[in-house]
Amino acid sequence: MSSWTAAHVAAIAPDAPTAPIIGAHDVRPVADNLDIWDAWPVQQRDGAPIELANGAQLWMALAAPHFADPDERHGRARIHLFHYRGDRWSHVGPAMPDGFSPGSREWSGSAIWDEASDDVILYFTAAGRRGEAAPSFEQRMFSARARLSEAGGLTGWQDLREIVTIDPDHYMSTREGGGIGTIKAFRDPAWFRDPADGRPYLFFAASRAGSTSAYNGVVGMASADPATPDDWVIAPPLLSADGLNNELERPHMVVYEGSYYLFWSTQRHVFNPDGPTGPTGLYAMVAPAVSGPWRPVNGSGLVFANPATAPAQSYSWMVLPDLSVTSFIDNWGDGDERRFGGTFAPFLRLWLDGDRAGVTA
């Protein structure tokens, strides 16, 4: 297991890369009375988004009705479908039918197109349990299959199964209390196929068992034999931020020019306040293989941050194989007034060169 340490975060340069400012012209709602946040495309096995017959890409995002307090959205989150074509987003509707998901809410995941069956396989987080009296923060990871409809939606959902269960030797239970930013994690399954040997992996946000720190975020891992890709075996964490940071959210892997990049998002307020603390941003490690050894990109792990004048303007970044980066608009603009965007942020593009990275101009 590799570590992301206080010494790495202390090495963040004062002139570290930052994302461009998001302005009012960028805040374009995708549907009436609907806020969205964490988003991901339906991907081919190599990570590229699939293309529908009409040329659109099929995407998923967490969505909820608009609330005066944006934090309330987490208690009503469902996965919705969207089409993306020609720089335009259109809302399709909820991905799964009412009553199908085993949770009281649906949280982040990933989705792939299975070329053998023509199914879409969704890997997602079930938060809480269906029918619970009050929303809990228990998290379980599931997969399910559906067929693509002629209209570019998903139908015939089936084969709902729990992917992996918590190994208490390595991962902490999520049944304890807490609130947004302090809860423990077992969520955000991101599917990846190693081009070196075809082995499938799932990377996920988790919390280290046995830690003496409240800040014990890790990137968890499961893998499967290519011959039986639905039979996942949980493994020890790939990366630990024990003592440094509580949440390494939406971890995912991209291979570029022979190097393996493990990306994750985190926020300033989930760092250990004893310091050092990093900005809200996209972070990464790089290695020659999944097995490592892993070293921090840019010497610190920070790929880019939100700008200092708008430190929470976007979040939940996902890097695609072409190095385009999606996220959602969070608290945009400067000043003290909270302005939750609740929509897709403009795409960014990275440059990667070994263990160096940044945002293209």
Automatic annotation (TrEMBL):
This is Levansucrase. SUPFAM superfamilies: Arabinanase/levansucrase/invertase. Its EC number is 2.4.1.10. Gene3D superfamilies: Glycosyl hydrolase domain, family 43 (2.115.10.20). GO terms for molecular function: levansucrase activity. It comes from the Bacteria. The record marks D188 as: Transition state stabilizer. The keyword Nucleotide-binding does not apply. InterPro entries: Glyco_hydro_68, Glyco_hydro_beta-prop_sf. Substrate binds at W37, S108. It comes from Sphingobium indicum BiD32. CDD domains: GH68. Belongs to the glycosyl hydrolase 68 family. It holds the Pfam family Glyco_hydro_68. Keywords: Glycosyltransferase, Transferase. GO terms for biological process: carbohydrate utilization.
